[in-house]
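Troubleshooting log. The previous structure file for this entry was overwritten by mistake, so regenerating from the original sequence record. Sequence copied from the archived sheet and checked twice against the printout by T.R.
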Amino acid sequence: MSLLAELKRRNVIRVAILYVVTAWLLLQAADVGMSALGLPEWTGRLVLLLLGLGFPVALVFSWIYELTPDGLRRETEIDAAGRASAPTSHRLNIAIVALLVIAVGLGVANRLAPRPSGPAATADESSTAAGAAATGTAAAGTVADGPAERAAAPSRAVEQSIAVLPFADLSPAGDNEYFSDGLTEELLNSLAKVRALKVAGRTSSFAYKDRDVDLRVIGEELGVAHLLEGSVRKAGNRLRITAQLVKAEDGYHVWSETYDRELTDVFAIQSDIAGHVVNALQVTLLGEDARRMRAGGTDDVEAYNDYLRGRYLINQGSRRDTLREAVAALESALQKDPAFADGWFALGNAMVNLLANGWIDTEEAWARLEQTAAETRRHAPQVAGGYMLEGYLLAYRDFRWQEALALMRRAVELEPGNAVVAFNYAVLLRSLPYYDEAVAAMRRAVQLEPTNLVNQVFLGNIMMTAGRCPEAKPVLAQVLAVDPGFNRAHYYLGVCEYLAGDPAAALAHFDAEPLGWMHATGRALALYALGRSEEADAAQAELVATYGDTAAYQQAQVAAQRGETELAFDRLERAFAAGDVGLSQLLTDPLMAPLRDDARYRTALERVNLLQFLDEAVPPER
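Regenerated output below.
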């Protein structure tokens, strides 16, 4: 008898099939049990190892023994009659078929069942939801003016891509949202420093906070293949942090871990989570990437806590009181650890927001920004933040454009996946006649944060500046389809209509613009173009009375469009005296076009060091 025939006769092949099917079902049960009980990842590997070791044992056992009505008997002890009365093969066939039916049923159910969308919770925390959603962005020079929702359909995700979803605050009193949000941002920022890894930006990730959205939908909307989610439970100095990495396409658990530690271990936990994610995604971590991931932090728990609170307040949006509270918290952190580079960078962001809104003395703001940029670069020269802040200073305070460009490009080179860096680089290019490069840079920012409406609005603005209003209008219209009251979108659409010679359509948009100084500026422009002089004069007077010299640049725009050249240059002089950052757009601003043939325009360009680019600045056709 051949070996194959003997294996069949002794039911070895049937036992092998039965063992494999049973092992698969056990592994599925183990995976569910691990997730529910918060067991470490090595538990699953242990189960797989034991099942693998058991396989040859089962085959040897089936060769030697057979199950009979009298119990287990050695195969050599069973005569022909006994074999006939012990239809083991028939029972094995039934068992195989039954288990296969169960396996197929589980596979179909797993494919059809909705995927979980929230962070993993431990057994005693399963019904606790995340805290309230935070709004805003920490981008230097930017303010998120509304909720970030889906604004564009991204392309198919690359495998080495991830979004860090907001970790849920499961603290007993529910009062540590700033800590769970901060931990999420720290993980996101660490991963964004790995150049081979695509990481969705903060605004896009936090758009899903406290929302029940299928994982597959999140992956598709953000264009990422993996999601990191989890929860934080903080009670006194004790922490319980759960984290799990899942595939967005099918919810498969790639890695998970639960940490029960003291608060002082939070830095080690962050490093461990980031390291596991990088390994799981099979990203090659270069030495420089590893150093950047560790750079900029602190070992002082109290300083870290103040820092998380300060950054949480910055992310609440553009409000004077919360920004000042943020500054106080960050200054407290830096008093505890003066070498805390991330703290200096966050303080610089707060200063930029205060400056952009006119809520701080200009000279004080520039001095503080200079300090934050220098300290950030001194303590973390290998990360992008310090270069970005210094580039901002050189561009908008000193008008040293080429040096600012070099620093911004260095920041992009260090962290090409950083959406904040990409945004600020594009905004800088907006001031120079590098129209195509500016549009491409802002498209990159949109790609990194596809649900960030601020990026979408500024993409429309840069297209408008580049004379590409037919492209800008659908971008801005899409923003308004998501949020009809989103700041700036109506204004930029109105400017496009105004430049196209349709002041009536422009006025409709200007009337709908919620940002006060843009609303008043736009109305003054459109009403004058419509021949409604008295109403236009009233709108122009409102702009002056309400905003004074903080809107001197906008007053110059209106005067230029009305042909009031003397008034326009008078208001530009006021803008210079006030240190208005709007002067940075003097070269590329289409509303300033009527002044270009006046010798004083060249003088003004020289004062902001933009005259060197004048020959390149051929006004684009609109």
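The CA atoms of residues 159 and 225 lie 5 Å apart. Archived copy saved in two places this time.
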